[in-house]
Amino acid sequence: MNYEFKWSVLWSGQSGAWLLQGLLTTLEISVLAWLLAIALGILSGALRTVPFLPLRWAATFYVEFFRNVPLLVWMFFWYFGVPPLLPRPLQDWLFNHGAEFWAGMFALGVYHGARMSEVIRSGIQSIPRTQFEASLAIGLTTFQVYRLIIIPVALRLIVPPATSESLNLLKNSSVALTISVAELTFQTRQIETYTAKAIEALTAGTLIYLVLCLSIATVMARVERHYAIPGLIARVGPG
Amino acid sequence: MDVGVIVNNFQFLVVQGLIGIGPFIGGTLRLAIPAMILGFLLGIFVGLARLAGRRWIRVPATVYVEFFRGVPLVMVIFWIWFIIPQLLRLPIPEYGVALTAFVVFEAAYFGEIVRAGIQSVPRGQVEAATTLGLTATKTMAYVVLPQALRNMVPALVTQMIVLFKDTSLASIIGYVDLTKAAQIVNNREIRPFELYLFVAVVYWIFTYSMSRMARRLERPLSPA
């Protein structure tokens, strides 16, 4: 292998600024998509366990269709397929405000919402039925049972699988480079294109992802210990 | 909705994109099936190495798993794309790059499944086998692995679904799979809504039937 390393390409020129911008965009798109995914996940995960059939079907359709199709296809669908069908003013607004970012964020959030939903559902289903019945018996409504008892307990149970799913979301945000969102992988490729130093650029990008993922995992391990419900050994798995 | 665009390009999308017969090197199935088999085989070694008694086997395997689970697949594909031609000093077709990337990446995930499967076998089984006079290798091959395999089937199928979906990322480096085929058709026809929805449904048919299969194989291990 005759490859001349030139690590200085990473701190000379614009590389540093590009990497930083890429990192910020990755964090921005991931955080927004994560909030969307959590909201959709809790909603559909809870709806899949309620006793009312049409709601359960709607939630099941959402989960089974969206999580079983590749994220890349969703990115193309939401970016190329959907905007032309929107009303004109909304289209104009989108294309003046970075349509690729919003389409990418939406694709990421909706896809991971369906996956998060499975994590939350398995958390809810691991709560003994008797808790539900006891809550009803003391006079709570079904909605109150979910809001006050089932969801808070489920959220504490699912910290480990939800963490790994959140890390998947962060890593999957790299797929947004296909619709030219200038996130971390995109910027890594840009440095490679400008400097022709592929290994250096890829190393920088890879290290940033590794540090991000490992530090989130470390923090979440602490959170997990803090919120663990004493007396339970059951660990909840996805699906 | 214009269904005509799907009907007119059905052959290209399915025969070239999904199966891989046509003018381009491609095919989702032609990439996914070998990647599943090879990824799982490498995963068995990774999983066994993670449980090895010797540190110099266990530590590299752990680093391998933690590394690939902390990096996006897109990044790994780019690595292989740049590194292999540099190392071998010859151009590698997209198929080779994609297959290598998927096998190396997914083996980390398969390895964790194999490890969990092995750890789910009761300790007494190993002790009983040792008492009967089986060597460590034979215990693993005839007693532990067959039972572990049964326990890991649901997780394995789930991971294979993930891999099947992930193969769409091979289109980034120009491999003509189903997703890329849809892109090619779309460049000519400009009907993104219909085309990508169709592709989504085709992927869904495969992944959903796999997940139904997984659910049937899932045996409840403990009462709820």
Which descriptors would you attach to this protein?
heterodimer; A: 239 residues; mainly alpha; MetI-like fold; 74% helix; disordered C terminus; B: 224 residues; 2 domains
Topology of helices and strands:
The complex is a heterodimer of chains A (239) and B (224).
Chain A: H1 15-47, H2 53-67, H3 71-81, H4 88-96, H5 99-125, H6 129-137, H7 142-157, H8 159-172, H9 184-195, H10 198-227
Helix pairs in contact in A: 1-2, 1-5, 1-9, 2-5, 3-5, 5-8, 6-7, 8-10, 9-10
Chain B: H1 4-19, H2 28-50, H3 55-69, H4 73-88, H5 94-119, H6 123-131, H7 136-166, H8 178-189, H9 192-217
CATH topology-level fold name of chain A: MetI-like fold
What does the radius of gyration of chain A come to?
A: 21 Å
- Identify the overall geometry of chain B: elongated
Fraction in helix of chain A: over 70%
The topology string of helices and strands of chain A comes to: HHHHHHHHHH
Sheet with most strands of chain A = none
Helix count from the secondary structure assignment of chain A: 10
Total domains of chain A, how many?
1
- The second-level CATH architecture of the largest domain in chain B is Orthogonal Bundle
Number of strands of chain A: 0
Beta strand count of chain B: 0
Helical residue percent band of chain B = over 70%
Describe the protein's architecture and organization.
The complex is a heterodimer of chains A (239) and B (224). Chain A has helices spanning 15-47, 53-67, 71-81, 88-96, 99-125, 129-137, 142-157, 159-172, 184-195, 198-227. Chain A has 239 residues and is mainly alpha-helical. Residues 234-239 of chain A have low confidence and may be disordered. With 224 residues, chain B is mostly helical. Chain B folds into two domains: 1-27 and 176-214, no CATH class; 29-118 and 153-175, Orthogonal Bundle (MetI-like fold). Chain B has helices spanning 4-19, 28-50, 55-69, 73-88, 94-119, 123-131, 136-166, 178-189, 192-217. At the A-B interface, helix 3, helix 8, helix 9 and helix 10 of A face helix 3, helix 4, helix 7, helix 8 and helix 9 of B.
